[in-house]
Amino acid sequence: MSSDLLRSFDGLIKEMGYRNRSEAIRDLIRERLVQQEWQLANKETVGSITLVYSHDIGELAEVLTALQHKYHKYVLSTMHIHLDKHNCLEVLVVKGKGKEIKRIADRLLSTKGVKHGKLTTTTTGRRIP
Amino acid sequence: MSSDLLRSFDGLIKEMGYRNRSEAIRDLIRERLVQQEWQLANKETVGSITLVYSHDIGELAEVLTALQHKYHKYVLSTMHIHLDKHNCLEVLVVKGKGKEIKRIADRLLSTKGVKHGKLTTTTTGRRIP
Amino acid sequence: MSSDLLRSFDGLIKEMGYRNRSEAIRDLIRERLVQQEWQLANKETVGSITLVYSHDIGELAEVLTALQHKYHKYVLSTMHIHLDKHNCLEVLVVKGKGKEIKRIADRLLSTKGVKHGKLTTTTTGRRIP
Amino acid sequence: MSSDLLRSFDGLIKEMGYRNRSEAIRDLIRERLVQQEWQLANKETVGSITLVYSHDIGELAEVLTALQHKYHKYVLSTMHIHLDKHNCLEVLVVKGKGKEIKRIADRLLSTKGVKHGKLTTTTTGRRIP
User: Fold this and answer.
1) For every residue of A44-94, which 3-state class applies, written as one string?
2) What is the ipTM of this complex?
3) Which of A26, A27, B43, B82 is the most buried (most CB within 10 A)?
4) How many angstroms from the chain centroid is the CA of residue C114?
5) What is the mean pLDDT of chain C?
6) What chain A residue is nearest to D31 in terms of C-alpha separation?
7) By C-alpha distance, which of C53, C113, C103 is closest to C73?
């Protein structure tokens, strides 16, 4: 591998906090493998769903809770944070096939009153050494 | 707006679970505003950091805990899940300026033993009606 | 729709150069429809593939040309630019099913000597009014 | 590096068409460096802008041409393709500082009648060995 390329890379990863180059390369490889895990929509995988919403909207919390119960088989855990007087943040960790997780995220994100939401695609860790 | 465009959009959002078109359009607008919030690196905002790691690696949990204490001013809350005998998932919700949150995420993701990690950029909700 | 939300959006889109709000909303909707077009991997669609490479590497240009001929059914057109004495940029516009276009992009991007490459997913325009 | 990780990676990259592992790792590193090149908004870099639009809309072609002349210092080359009777695709290759290229892309994408547009961030190749 050209020494120029490695020098540039070393500069970048030092800034990010990596102690050595091989850990940084391992992470690039793992990230690529997780991407593939999600493209193969039928493998079991894990996602976290982050929602920001206002609890001023009466029934929203109830609707979100009902949805989580409907999908309780998939939802491993949730965390709720009061950002300020009006705004809440909720994170759900969800396990299932990629397309099932995406479907649950769609349902939650499309609920009226959810200001912002995102599905973060991660991994069970089992196929990622 | 052309009726063809709206018809295609209605098909898509029905599948996602939206009850009506204006909520779906509101969400597209909000998503765009959150993106901008993060481009202006000096506004206070919120992110969630998702980490998957193996707790077989002795000191990793300690290192991650130490990092979270170092940045305790920013970390609002964390959640920990045992995915299986070897793999853990941890979500941190972090509040601060965009570039500070990115820095904390870089530090956590570059820690040796973290298999996969991602920063999800969301919002305080305050500037997103 | 809340006037706060629209005011924030109007500020953003003015900066981007939009003359009016409905054109900006149309574009958000279209972008969402194009994303869906690519998720349904079996619809005919269009992508552009951007490659940067050094022509110092003897056989690279030949390999790239051979690949383009192999996939000539899909490649609508290409453009070549001499960035400097060493570096070239090439853009190919490719039409086919999403998964076929991805396959061609993979082949081109993985060719030895290609420094950087990316598939940009766009549309035939036919299903996007 | 763990042999499990390398075995999974080898499977993936073989599918993508890579001949050997080091070329694939080089590409992961280069991709990361190009990302950084764009985060440092003041370095000279290169982007390609892909636009799909209908030429039924009278003045659109003129407006796009006028914009390209306004920014002629940055536009290295353009390519135009007739996708069908109604739809055109145009690719512009643009060189400049990251924020200048983004500004030009914003102007083009926000032009009325452009159905879909995207900025693809690539590189001059000079700092990417």
Assistant:
1) EEEEEEEEEEECCCCCHHHHHHHHHHHCCCCEEEEEEEECCCCEEEEEEEE
2) 0.92
3) A27
4) 17
5) 92
6) A28
7) C103
